[in-house]
Amino acid sequence: MQITTVLIALGLLIFLSHVLNAFFDKIRISNVLFLILIGLVVGPVMGWVSPAYLGQFGSVFTTITLIVILFESGTSLDIVMLKKSFLGASLLTILNFVGALFFGYILGRLLLNLDILHSLFLGAALGGTSSAVVIPMIRQLKSGQKAETVLYLESALSDVLCLVVALALLSGIEVGEVSVAGIFQNMAVSFLFAILLGAFIGFFWILILKKYLKNVSNSMFTSFALAFILYGVSENLGLNGGICVLSYGIMVGNTGNIGFVKKRLTDSEDATLSKNERSFFSEIVFVLQTYFFVYIGISIQLNSVWHILVGLMMVVATFAFRFLTVKILGKKDLSVRDIKLITSMGPKGLVAAVLASLPLQNALEQANTAIGKPDLQTQVDALVLSGQTIQDVAYAVVLISIICCSVMVWMVEHRKEA
Question: Is residue 284 over pLDDT 60?
Answer without folding.
Answer: yes
